[in-house]
Design the sequence.
């Protein structure tokens, strides 16, 4: 009994892997990581220095840093610029993912749905309440005879 359960679990896992969704997800993660590195480089090399010009700093990550004395006698740095740089990086990735992947895929899916709808015959409309009641009446009349 346990052996059959194990075989079904392995078969289910094999079917799950073979669906392609896992492969698509793996490709998306790898491409996302590579693209994240590109966006981070652009933010660090272009955006940060441009903002650093405005704040007389080395870049966004250090431009809006606030040093606060700690209770132990040292200092603690709150790097608000690093947070803003991360938000800019996230927004840049989100914009590119939307315009390069999501929007074209949605357009393609709607095109495919429209094409599929045009080739399939229209389904018959559902019967009205009156039609159903008439059918029931006729069936009951046949059963009584």
Sequence:
């Amino acid at each position: 009994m346990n052996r059959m359960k194990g075989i079904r679990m392995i078969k289910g896992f094999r079917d799950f892997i073979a669906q392609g969704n896992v492969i698509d997800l793996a490709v998306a993660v790898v491409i996302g990581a590579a693209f994240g590195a590109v966006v981070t480089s652009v933010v660090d090399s272009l955006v940060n220095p441009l903002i650093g010009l405005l704040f007389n700093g080395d870049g966004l990550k250090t431009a809006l840093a606030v040093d606060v004395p700690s209770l132990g006698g040292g200092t603690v740095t709150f790097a608000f610029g690093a947070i803003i740089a991360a938000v800019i990086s996230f927004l840049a990735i989100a914009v590119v993912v939307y315009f390069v992947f999501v929007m074209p895929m949605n357009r393609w899916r709607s095109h495919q749905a429209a094409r599929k709808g045009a080739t399939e015959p229209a389904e018959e409309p559902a019967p009205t309440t009156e039609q159903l009641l008439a059918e029931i009446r006729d069936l009951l009349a046949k059963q009584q005879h």
Observations:
- Residues 66 and 78 are 5 Å apart (CA to CA).
